[in-house]
Fold these 4 entries.
Entry 1:
Amino acid sequence: MLKTEIRKIYLQKRTAIDPKDQRIWDDLLLIQFQQLALPPVHSVLTYAAIESRKEISTDALLGYLEFRNPGLEIAYPVFDHRNSIMNAVWVTDNTFFEVNSLGISEPENGAAAAPENFDLVLVPLLSFDKAGFRVGYGKGVYDKYLKQVRPDAIKVGLSYFEPLSKIDDTDEFDIPLNYCITPQGIYEF
């Protein structure tokens, strides 16, 4: 299946998720995430879920990571829409977030976080395949950014749905995940 077709199908599938099921699946995702054998993590790049698109919130996962890794540094993406690039900034408990023109919450301020600083990256997606490739919203900003991340940084996707067999139109610009977590299990690539 091609990315454009996958994108359309999985946007519809996410829209159709019952809120009660979503809460249950979020709890199951956290349980699966807690089973992931991660080394000590000092820094993580995460994302602010777009609730209207039923993206998976990383809040509970971050709470678990902070408990397991005292002093954990957390960064969020900031998008430059004119140039289709993504940057990241460190946040604290006092950081304010503002919703941008695309409906994405971004930190209003914060020190720049270089891509090579991250031990772990939590990656949003619509779908993924059994080789660890993902389908996002189609702008390619995450793949451009992930290309700059350290090779040993762990890239983890989160999905409510099980993997596709194969995304037919992956290319050299697509960066595969190391893991993807669903309510049913952990996929390692």
Entry 2:
Amino acid sequence: MEINLENSKMLHLMRAKGLELFYKKGYYNTSLTDILKDLSTTEAVFKYHFQSKEDFFISIAQNLILQRTLDLLIEPVSYKQNPFSLILDMFENEMDKVTKSTTDYGFMLSNFMNEFNNRNPRINKYLLDILKIWEINLGTLLRKGQLDGYVNHHIDCESAANHVISSYFGIRTLMVEGNTRTLSQQFLQQLRYYFHSISQKITA
């Protein structure tokens, strides 16, 4: 049991370091030699756990990238609550982290999706599955908001969820170039306007 725990910790550390390297340099700009050097390990040890660089990245996607994306999700609550406030709070927290970061290379999931698109269907499928989880979760939250009387009943919640996510992908790409605080504030303000436009208007 102790050996398994130690092995699990070691694998987590390898994935964490690998993800940081891939995020910074990109998958195709990172060689196996780069990985071995960063992990301070040998090719024999690496290939004992992972068959290839591709399998190493897939392991990272299945564990760390999925978990980091899940951290952005808001599980549908069982009591009546305004979904717009929940989503805004989530994005405000993320934007606050980004504006304070000194090593921002963009939104991790969208970066990798762009890099692997039309280049590696196997890896891209894992990334698309992670994106789908996020889309479904936000759509579910907005649909519950419709039932609770917060979201206009004419709104297509799946389309609204896609709009929110694609807007976040776009602003995170722009923020890599700098001016992060202003762009963050603009994004959040526009998101508030959008939510106001699709909210259920209360009439007297």
Entry 3:
Amino acid sequence: MSANMPRLGAIVAGIAALGLASGCAQIRDHKGYVVDSTLIDTVRPGVDNRDSVARTLGNPSFASQFDRGATWYYLSRDTRQLAFASPRPVGQMLLAVRFDSAGNVVGVEKSGMENVVSISPDGDKTPTLGRDRGFLSELFGNIGRVGAAGAAPGGGTADNPN
């Protein structure tokens, strides 16, 4: 019986190691357009129009808002993350197809990870303009202001008399 104890310990340790390894595995995810390089390379300025691009590449991920839809964007992003960490982008492709007023393709631009920017918010507070008041000032700041001499009638302020 004592000869089986080391084996049992090794089996338990192996199962525990597998459990830890599977809990820390990377999660891979793909979002957006499914890239087919062959189809992307067939879109040519001066040859294609909106209809042919829609038939070749499908509907865009989004269209521009500022030039009345004259640019279609196809966005694809691959991310990885460990357990509960935030996902990190590991691959991105942005294809911009520009059209003229007649609907013909005038430009095709492809970009990648060089446009990805990491931002970090400033803590859990949003900075605002104005006075920085402490707790007591917030609590007792309005004492004596309501109905004070020179105040607008009705208990309001000069800006808002109601």
Entry 4:
Amino acid sequence: MTAGNGSQAEDRPARTGRRPGRSGAREAILRAARARFSEAGFDKTSIRSVAGDAGVDPALVHHYFGTKQELFAAVVQLPMDPEITLRAVDSAPLDRLGEAILRAVLGVWDSPAGAGIVAMVRSIIAGGDTALARSFLLEIVLERVRQRIATPADDGRLRVALVASQMVGLLMTRKIVELEPIPSATIEEVVTAVAPNLQRYLTGEL
């Protein structure tokens, strides 16, 4: 009996002084982050506030998810790091910004990660979580673009919202509704047709 009790004691997890439910911390962080991002948006959500809602230390959020942007990507189940695409857009000259955005986004949609992005969009549509979608588009994907085009007379918010509307429509018709011949068109054909309109939204007359 003594040996049996000793074996059971060895099988028990060691006490670490961590808070109860630590084994479910990752899921608790994701739930808390989803609620925060949906309610407050990306910019007004902090790692500390998410950690507080989840009942964990902020260091644990960083341990599991890294940066706030990576946490957001995990919440919306984005299959790639948006920073890679954003860097390509950041390096584009202002007068080629519309083309750069379009090429970068189309390249992702048509890559192996594209199926995951389409699945994410379908999930957002089915779940009605438009706050997350809006935050992702305007506060992550297009915010750095907005800062580049903003002037004292125009903060650029309408301009990037118009770009977002064009990109959402293109994603829907190319990958979800599959409205031919848009799905069959090459990237070059789409860029030739759509990029000038995006550029007008960004830097032309509205």
